[in-house]
Design a protein that fits this description.
Elements (H helix, E strand, L loop, with lengths): L1 H31 L4 H21 L2 H19 L12 H26 L1
Length: 117
């Protein structure tokens, strides 16, 4: 059971890095076209997937970060808020917290695996 969980977490971490790369690209696209419904939808789907998986795996910090991003994206999507160049985080800064949380989770998983072996 533990090996299966480790495998699921490992896959999640790999997918999270890929998702954060996609978010970097989408945030740059959003800076160029702040009202792009397609870009906002892509970012929302990515963040929603990360949030759901974090909730399932118990990664509370990353889940809270994704939830906050999802709330903002919901406002953008329904038009109750908008993005401008001055309000859009630069992409490296915009995904830095997510990458840090993913790395912390990965280090904790490795430490746990090492101490139990």
């Amino acid at each position: 059971m533990k090996d299966e969980l480790d495998e699921v977490i490992g896959e999640f971490l790999i997918e999270s890095h890929e998702s954060l790369d996609r978010l970097d690209r989408d945030l740059v696209a959003l800076e160029e076209d702040p009202r792009s419904a397609e870009t906002i939808a892509s970012i929302f789907r990515t963040v929603h997937t990360i949030k759901g998986t974090c909730g399932f795996l118990g990664f509370e910090k990353l889940e809270r970060l994704a939830h906050a991003a999802e709330n903002l994206l919901g406002k953008l999507r329904d038009g109750s808020s908008w993005m401008s160049r001055s309000r859009t985080p630069s992409s490296p800064r915009g995904t830095r917290s997510g990458r840090c949380s993913a790395r912390s989770s990965e280090r904790a998983r490795r430490a746990t695996s090492t101490t139990r072996s």
